[in-house]
Amino acid sequence: MLSKEERRQLSAIEAWIAADDPAFAAGLANGRPRAPRRDRRWPLQAVVALATGFALFSLVAGQPIGLVVGSVVACAAAVADQLRARRRHGSAPAVTRLRGRDGFQPF
Fold first, then answer.
1. Cα–Cα distances in Å, from 51 out to 54, 64, 79, 97?
2. How big is the CA angle at 81 (ends 41 and 56), to the nearest 5 degrees?
3. Each residue of 56-89: pLDDT tens digit?
4. pLDDT by residue (tens digit) across 7-59?
5. Torsion-angle region of 13 (φ positive above 0: left; ψ -120 to 50: alpha; else: beta)
């Protein structure tokens, strides 16, 4: 059995999830949740894969400028993906943004 404080915290978490990502909250209510919106990293990962493929194709074709451009774009997208993941999963600004007026922190 949950205490009054635990029920209050659970209600606050539910309200925060519903406000942040309504489709995810609806999926949880239906028993078929999908990945939260902020965890969808596939666009940056697709850029990394395509740029790496372009760099490898340029290497085989003997085009050094394509190799350099593909490598730079792939590295930049990989770094952006990692920074985005860190920002979303535990850095100080994200935690500060989640705090409510009463100082409650859902995670």
1. 5, 14, 13, 34
2. 100
3. 999 999 999 999 999 999 999 888 888 877 776 6
4. 899 888 888 888 887 877 888 888 877 666 656 677 888 899 999 999 999 99
5. alpha
Instruction: Locate 93 and state its tokens.
Output: 């600004």
> Is the sign of the CA dihedral 95, 100, 102, 107 positive or negative?
negative
The one-character DSSP state at 76 is: H
Using a 10 angstrom Cβ sphere, with 0-12 exposed, 13-18 middle and 19 or more buried, the burial of residue 46 is exposed
| Cα(32)–Cα(18) distance, integer angstroms | 15
Would you say 25 and 17 are in contact if contact means Cβ atoms under 8 Å apart?
Answer: yes
The separation between the first and the last C-alpha atoms of the chain, rounded to the nearest angstrom, is 21
Backbone angles phi, psi at 101, to 5 degrees: -65, -30
Q: What is the DSSP string of 14-38?
A: HHHHHHH-HHHHHHHHHT-----GG
